[in-house]
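1st attempt posting a full record on here, be nice pls
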Amino acid sequence: MKKVLVLGAGLVSRPLVRYLLDQPDFNVTVASRTVSKAEKLIDGHPKGTALPLLADNEEKLDKLVSEHDLSISLLPAPLHPVVAKMCIKHKKQMVTTSYVSPAMKALDGPAKNAGVMLLNEIGVDPGIDHMSAMRIIDDVRKRGGEVVSFKSYCGGLPAPDCNDNPFGYKFSWSPRAVCTAGKNSARFREDGKQVDVPGPDLFTCTHTRDIEGIGTLEAYPNRDSLGYIDVYGLKGINTMFRGTFRYLGWCETLKKIVDLGILDETPVTYPKGTTYAQYTARFLKRHPSGDIRKDVAARFDLPENSPILDRLEWLGLFSDDEIAITGEETTALDILSARMGEKMPYKPGERDMIVLCHYFIAEFPNAPDESITSTLIDFGRPHGDSSMARTVSLPAAVGAKLILTGKVMIPGVHIPVIPEIYNPVLDELATMEIECIEKTTPMK
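the predicted structure (as tokens):
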């Protein structure tokens, strides 16, 4: 029996744990700060064990890693290199769904020397996006063509029938992480020119896409697209863009939140009894008039009936409700993300949705050029697993199985951009109704 250690029992963990428990030759240990969450995931399964674990208890973590054949880290991203070093030390394998950080990348040599595979970025974005893109890129190359333009988008959103709040968004994962991502700078290539977008301007660099069956979505750039030119083997490509999907209105509203300074992470003292109106007033560069909506409108020269103001008011940022978090270590970002989490949850039985779209232009020397699209639209199960949980965790679970059964074993730090990984993972995901639909149109 192979022994798998799952570190973390958060919102996306359940499909992964259940998949691994369903494998005939795997025992699964789930270790979590809140052991009751781990116990709920195991649900009395005879091959499962739930354990309490504080991530900073490195002695206990090291022991657990040494006792298992493979560790799947669903911990906060800064902890992945800590787990990876322990895996290298004990010659154990590792899987994560997170981006490869510089600290993780630096472990490539030690992992190769130890014969250890550290498989990262095998979730949905990153993950399914890489695998579905590389399958098409490699097919174009096999047919003698060259990809000259690649645009990729992904968004986790409420299903259209559950999109009932002014922000067009609900949280299937950490509200703080969503807000923090809104501070990232970005860069991409458009028609041969590099475009750099500073963090404060992220939500001004937008455009729209029409998605069949869903409607019009807006998109903004996702981090550093240029880093994937070499990863995908697309040197010299004219256009390279990776973006995030949202419903219309999100970007213009988040831009004003950014400009107010509400994403600030500086610790501030908010006395008990502070209201959201007082909290918001702290970010105005003018003396408050007593009507916070009018003050924010004046700050940005917005009409007082602006939908942006309607969204901020709906969120409660102009209200006399007391903020939920106070104290010296509180940050503006903490208060905003907590409020969003309160106001924008999924109700029981509601569905979330993942929309992943690739747009390619491929040129061929002796055949018509092609426009190729690849689209994944996946919905959560009412009263069951969210789409976010399924599409993030099931690729990691399948990747772990491939490693443990010896079908894939390539020492070093990897992401799933080679056929030995992406073909079996995508093929198995398709059996679970997670499938990209491809369409090719000849270009005149």
